[in-house]
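Late entry, evening session. Most of the bench is empty. Finally got around to the prediction I had been postponing all week. Sequence below, unchanged from the version circulated by S.P.
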Amino acid sequence: MNSPSEHQPRAIPHPTTTIQHRVTDVAAGLIFRNGKILITKRQEGAHLGGLWEFPGGKREAGETFEQCLARELQEELGINVTVGALFESITHDYQEKTVHLKFFVCRLEAGEPRPIGCAALKWVAKSEMKDCDFPAADARLLEELQQNLDLWNEQQSGWVSRAIFDA
């Protein structure tokens, strides 16, 4: 019989330290289609290269997290989205930097995702996420996504709760 951990996505541990770093603000999107969520693979040679993540990027000066996310998804995947409600906010210390991530539920409005600014992309079902290696900062989010059946069920039917986008 499989242990519960065999069914969880893997967040790859990364050494941490107590050294204070400047915080990098990052916005990421949770984009669902037909019961699957979009993930992208980080470029080799980049920080955490080769790991899977939720698409998004660094916030620029003067941008809201929502503006950042819409811009990053257009630049890196060639898609337009409606940015919905904040799903999770996480601050994580890596040895070389501290990241403050905000994850938003998004609705794909136009375009078909293409790997313009990432190594690869794929749509994965909840059960397939366990086969993907994610950064350590995503561990809590991955656990919440595994437990949040309502979000997956709403997305699987193609219907998105208005509350997610009207927040």
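Two things to note before I forget:
The chain has one domain: 23-163.
The helical segments are 65-77, 139-147, 149-156, 162-166.
Will write this up properly tomorrow.
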